[in-house]
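Quick entry, no commentary yet.
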Amino acid sequence: MLTLYVKHHCPWCVEAIHWLRHQKIKFNILDVIEDTEAYQRMRQISSQSLTPTLELENGAVLADFDVSQLEKFLEEHHIQ
């Protein structure tokens, strides 16, 4: 399962959520503003506080991305 770390006011997060849903890719959403543990985890795995941040089950991380970068990252990791 993919984990998407977001901030509710982030337009790139909204775009990533919409794109993932449109592609029918299953993922969990963690709002790092509401969930301090999720925020700490995101900082730990990405070394930054920017969203969106995506974590794959295999530990691969994509931080501070747009949809074109997301699409390429998922293709590289054979996720469709």
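second:
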Amino acid sequence: MIGKRKPVHPGEVLNEDVIKPLGLSVTEAASRLGVARKTLSTLLNCRASLSPEMAVRIAKATKTSPESWLYMQAKLDLWMAIRKSPKVKDLKAMAV
């Protein structure tokens, strides 16, 4: 079930729980992840969704699972879809 509260963007989690505590700059973190600085910056600033490839990179760098990172993104995507699509609640169930 999707709650009323907006889920946290995975970029925000990465920034607040990994990059800042390690004292890394965006440039240094991007280098360690093997991505462009701009790519990481857009993720950290919640302007881009987390891709499966980026989830794998982050998981390897943080010794976590890519599924956990993708789950954060999926929860956010689903929450946004439900909030942006008020007509969804008016749909009728399909009988099978």
